[in-house]
Specification:
This protein has about 120 residues and is α+β, with helices and mostly antiparallel strands. The protein contains 2 helices and 5 strands, in the order ααβββββ. It is about 40% helix and about 10% strand.
Length: about 120
Amino acid sequence: MRAGRFIGFAFAIIFLGLGLLFLLATGSPTNGARHADGILAAVLLALGIGTLVLTLKFLPAIKIEETVVQKIDLTGQTELEQMKCKSCGGTLDASALKVAGDGSVVVNCPFCGSTYQITEKPKW
């Protein structure tokens, strides 16, 4: 959280708390300055709400963006071979490969629309 946002929230809480305290004081039967306390309560509540609105509007929260880079480590000798769709036999390029949310590699054929997961054969 940014320091300005923290300070804005702190002042808003202080103003709102004091405003509520003075508002409660206006209901006391022994309070001789009810009118003055009521005005002060209204001013403090207005300051608290105003500070809260200004803090939320002009000091937005910091957005944290995460970039996930997935690296594939190939074991042993690998050769580049042309991939073909299992359904229609169409030639697939790198744009047909996507990484799914669970980390598996999925092929989307642009010719027939088939979607399937690439499985790796055991190396032993």
